[in-house]
Prior knowledge:
Layout: H1 2-14, H2 21-52, H3 57-81, H4 87-121, H5 125-129
Helix pairs in contact: 1-2, 1-4, 2-3, 3-4
Amino acid sequence: MHMWLRDELDRLAEGDDTAGRDLRAHCLAFCTALERHHVGEDTLGFPALENDFPELGPTLELLRRDHDMISGILSRLAGLAGQTGDSAGDERFAGEVAGLTAIVTSHFAYEERTIVAALNRLDIPEWRDNPPDFLREFD
């Protein structure tokens, strides 16, 4: 899931202003997917990890704080995405995308470095054939 989200974030960060509404529509779709992923981690994934690996509690709390910070940026981006043709709005939009890119890149790297082994050992039978939405890619 992180690879797909990274690809989508790269597409967003590389977007140009001539794309206009297409860039903003992509932003809204990406923001929704990232928010859904993080909410799913917070409500389903992390509690499952904490249950099986309680020693990860402090790490998961740091990741949850990142989620809160990222959620704020996503909210600002969603608001800016509705504004078109305003150069000041375009600059704020580009700045928020740059900030989001930096934070998400760092967040994903930390998450993968600190909890991937536990995630690989996590076995939830009902997720095998029907993974929850936060683990699915959507186009």
